Amino acid sequence: MALTIQPLHPQFGAEVSGVDTGLPMDDATFAAIRSAFDAYAVLVFRDQSLDDERQIAFSRRFGPLETAGTANPAKGTQFARQSNLDMQTGAVIPAEDRRMIYQKGNYLWHADSSFRPAGSLCSLLSARIVPPEGGNTEFASMTAAYDALPDDTKQKLEGLVAEHSLVYSRETVTKDALTPEMKAELPGAWQTMLRTHPVTGRKAIYAGAHASHVIGWPREEGRAFIRWLNDFATQPRFCFSHAWRAGDLVIWDNRFTLHRATAYDTVRHKRLMQRTTVKGEALTAAQPERYELAAA
Ligand SMILES: [Fe+2]
User: Fold this and answer.
1) How far apart are CA 97 and CA 138, in angstroms?
2) How far is the CA of 221 from the centre of ligand 1 (A)?
3) Which member of 46, 78, 89, 93 has the lowest number of beta carbons within 10 Å of its beta carbon?
4) Is the overall model pTM greater than 0.85, yes or no?
5) pLDDT tops 80 at residue 296
C-alpha cells in the first residue's frame, strides 16, 4: 500500500495516510513509517482501527514498551491511560481527585520518561473518546529550536548534563501530586542537554519540565538556564497543535520534541486516550550510582 506523507509544519510533523496501523503490516510498510518518524519526529494517522491489543502489537514494532507505574491508573499494564473517566466505573472523576491533579503536569512542555535513565524513544497516543473542544496536544521541535539558538548557547550546551525528575516537575504543579510510593519508584535520571539524531545527524536541545537543574552548577543558576531554554524552545514558531478526532494515532519522538496537553472541560466532557511508550535505546549520560540501582 502506498503511503502519502503530508508535512504539517515547515520544520517537523507529518500526516501519514494510506495505512491502518491497526492491521498487520509488512516490513516494507513499517520501514517507510519508521523512516518518516526519523525525518518528521511527529506522525499523525487519522481514522485508525486501533484497540488496546492492536495498539500494543503496532507499538512493539518500534521496540520494547514501558510498563505503567503506580502513578497511572493503568498501573502494571503497557498503557499510560490519559482520561477523566474512572477505569472501573467509567464515571467522570471529580476535578479535585488526585488522579486529575496529577494529569495537570501534562500541561507543562515535557518529553515522556526523560526522568528514566534510558528515557523514551517515542510515545504512541491513540484517541478513543475525544471532547468536542480543547484537549489538544501541542508539539515543539527541539531540532528547530537548537538551530535557532545563539552560537554561544549552542557551545554552552556541549557536555552539559541535567538531572531530570518526575517529583520535581509534578511538584511545580502541586506538592500533593505524588504519594511516597510513587516518589520511591522514580528517583530520577541524568541526561545530556544536547542530543544528536542517530540518522539525520542534527542536534537538538533536550530539557523540558522534568529537567530540574544542571549538574555541577549552582542549583538556581541551572534552574534559570533550563527555564530560559524551555521558553526559547517552545516559541510558537517551533510548534504546532494537534486537534484530536476519535480514531487518531499520533507518534512522537521523545528524543527530539517536547509536547504538552491543553485544557478541556473535564467535568462536562469525556476524554480517553491510551498511550504506549517505547523505551529509549541507550543512556545519554552516565548515571550516578543511586539511579543505576533504581533502574536495575
Ligand atoms: Fe506526555
Assistant:
1) 25
2) 26
3) 89
4) yes
5) no
pLDDT digit string, tens, across residues 80-135: 999 999 999 999 999 988 888 888 889 999 999 999 999 999 999 999 999 999 99
- Work out the average pLDDT over 29-46: 98
Superfamily of domain 4-295: Clavaminate synthase-like (3.60.130.10)
* Contact assessment for residue 230 and residue 111, using Cβ atoms and an 8 Å cutoff: no
CA 106 / ligand 1 centre spacing (Å): 6
CA 241 – ligand 1 centroid, Å: 14
* Angle at 144 (CA atoms; ends 18, 201), nearest 5 degrees: 80
Torsion region of 88: left, alpha or beta (phi above 0 gives left; psi -120 to 50 gives alpha): alpha
Ligand 1 ion: Cβ-proximal residues, 5 Å cutoff? 112
Ligand 1 mean position to 278 CA, how many Å? 12
Cell representation of residue 230: 524551555
What type of residue is 152? D
CA of 275 to the centre of ligand 1 (A): 9
Residue 108, helix vs strand vs coil: coil
Q: Which helix (H) or strand (E) holds 251?
A: strand 249-253
Ramachandran angles phi, psi of 161, nearest 5°: -125, 135
Q: Is the dihedral of CA 33, 36, 40, 44 positive or negative?
A: negative
Please tell me the predicted confidence (pLDDT) of residue 132.
Answer: 95
> How far apart are the CA of 46 and the centre of ligand 1, in A?
20
Dist. CA 153 → ligand 1 center (Å): 26
Mean pLDDT for the stretch of residues 155-166: 97
